[in-house]
């Protein structure tokens, strides 16, 4: 695939990584995932630090915030609400439906795949975000591992779920529908309904979603990989451990994490990243990855990293 032009001309604010359309508007390709910061915001001090970090993200040009009601049982959404203030129209909020929180459980969430539960998730997100609409809601399927599997009455036809999501869009409660943890066949069936983005596992060492990525690129659908640096679920391989990644980082004078993120951006122009962090230096590092240009030597070496 051709590499995107990451230069943004005459922009009144930074746009890390350039832009790609999301929810009907040009959006910075380097965004922010809310999972990690929410886990560090359990007390008053942690919450205050999280709000300061999110405000810094806004100043750095990040406008895509990926959240979920089940992140901290609503806490992630409250942090966005408290951070954004009167700047709601400047950002794209993407959340998820398909699971619900189970506070105190070993795995603090469970499947919520029924159409009525998807609607309830949207209503809960609207309430905790204190907003009149959500820019993007990703329908999170549970058909395969890693992650939770739907069982019993939680095994719901995809078409029934998609119908509920499009109804919510027609009602104006959500502006765009996204899909997460899906198959190529499901995306093919959903494209006529209008899909804004797809969130699946994808990174340099796990390119099993390449066909899905290509289909998204061909149809102008944003590709939002989760675990963009690997290491998910505590067992998946990490991009930063690859010798080629470390060698490129040393030669270019950047970090291995930045190389992994920059490779994603260079690999396909519809890729949008949502790395999460609870650290200001790490946030600056992630944002700066959008300005890194990987030369042909680097791309050749990184493209040859073995994938699973």
Give, in order, the helices and strands: EEEHHEHEEEHEHEHEHEHHHH
Strand content: 5-15%
Helix proportion of residues, in percent? 25-40%
Gyration radius over CA: 18 Å
Number of helices: 11
Write down the overall geometry. Answer: globular
Number of E-type strands = 11
Poorly predicted segments: 1-11
Describe the structure.
It is built from eleven helices and eleven strands. The chain has helices at 35-39, 44-59, 75-84, 115-129, 158-170, 184-190, 210-218, 243-252, 256-267, 280-288, 296-303; strands at 19-22, 25-28, 32-33, 64-66, 92-97, 99-101, 109-111, 134-140, 174-180, 197-199, 222-223. The strands form three sheets. The chain has a seven-stranded parallel β-sheet. Strands 1-2 form a two-stranded antiparallel sheet. A two-stranded antiparallel sheet has the order 6-7. Helix 8 (243-252) crosses helix 9.
Q: Secondary structure elements and their pairing?
A:
Blueprint: E1 19-22, E2 25-28, E3 32-33, H1 35-39, H2 44-59, E4 64-66, H3 75-84, E5 92-97, E6 99-101, E7 109-111, H4 115-129, E8 134-140, H5 158-170, E9 174-180, H6 184-190, E10 197-199, H7 210-218, E11 222-223, H8 243-252, H9 256-267, H10 280-288, H11 296-303
Parallel strand pairs: 3-4, 4-5, 5-8, 8-9, 9-10, 10-11
Antiparallel strand pairs: 1-2, 6-7
Please describe the structure with a list of short key phrases separated by commas or semicolons.
308 residues; globular; 11 helices; seven-stranded parallel β-sheet; alpha/beta; disordered N terminus
